[in-house]
Design brief:
globular, about 80 residues, 10 strands
């Protein structure tokens, strides 16, 4: 980062299923802001439900993370943080 006073932390939480495991949730902290994303195969009303928490608020307003723009793909399966 250009601003050296901003910290970055990334955590991946896995789930073990018999002989294999997968990433269940991913969280990223930039500065004082935290974004946690959880995958789901469940659908509600025919559409995938986005499971994310921004600063501990479930599906709170998400336009940026510590001033960096965040976009969610139309299918809700990809979250992009522009660190540019």
């Amino acid at each position: 980062f250009a601003n050296q006073s901003i910290d970055l932390e990334i955590h991946l939480r896995t789930k073990i299923v018999r002989y294999w495991s997968y990433i269940k949730t991913a969280s990223i902290r930039i500065g004082n802001d935290i974004l946690e994303v959880e995958g789901s195969s469940n659908k509600e009303d025919g559409e995938d439900k986005r499971h994310y928490w921004i600063n501990f608020e479930y599906r709170g307003p998400l336009s940026d993370l510590a001033g960096f723009p965040v976009t969610i793909s139309p299918h809700g399966n990809k979250y992009t943080i522009d660190l540019g």
